[in-house]
């Protein structure tokens, strides 16, 4: 995963923080809808202040590599069940010119279309160790996938109350836990989470998107929504003229 140029960051000129995202085409990205909602005032158009950093990354100086956002599509069920539909499609004003860099780094991830994964290990790229006026540190975590039963048992054991999961952990979600405990060492500190990836050979797939942050330091798991459960909605927006088989 170290030779891949994702996830990327979505910034606003009006806010000091960012939202992790992943390119799924030359002009479209997936991101957390709840994160973007915090960044976008109700009456403001995103193109006036929101952009993606691609070729350069300067958190506080915004130099080079900007791709301004044209429109954000929020999942239609976001307001009703935010934890189960925390996903948005971000369309750029202008597409990126190349999806693969000269040294072979991929910028675009594929969408995983099946409910079941073909690997028992997934990857999370996250930023952590936030400091004032400094870039956050970045790391890749390789995470084993838990069963829904294990996930429910972990939440029950920790006695965590997560009102957003009013339907419990459902089939359209997946849970992970860091086997090396690196995430959990600093679990109570600010960290970004972000898209969840799986590799098959040299192909990288995005398989999950964040749900909600469980604000309980006794909970040592993370819950993601499966990208496959949003596939029809995503494809209709990103590739509206694609012929269905």
From TrEMBL:
Superkingdom of the organism of origin: Eukaryota
Pfam families: Trypsin
Stored SUPFAM superfamilies: Trypsin-like serine proteases (SSF50494)
PROSITE patterns with a match to the protein in the record: TRYPSIN_DOM (PS50240)
Listed InterPro entries: CLIP_Serine_Protease, Peptidase_S1_PA, Peptidase_S1_PA_chymotrypsin, Trypsin_dom
Segments forming domain Peptidase S1: 1-239
Gene Ontology terms describing biological process: proteolysis
GO MF entries: serine-type endopeptidase activity
Family listed: Belongs to the peptidase S1 family. CLIP subfamily.
Protein name, as recorded: Peptidase S1 domain-containing protein
Organism of this sequence: Anopheles culicifacies
Lineage summary: Eukaryota, Metazoa, Ecdysozoa, Arthropoda, Hexapoda
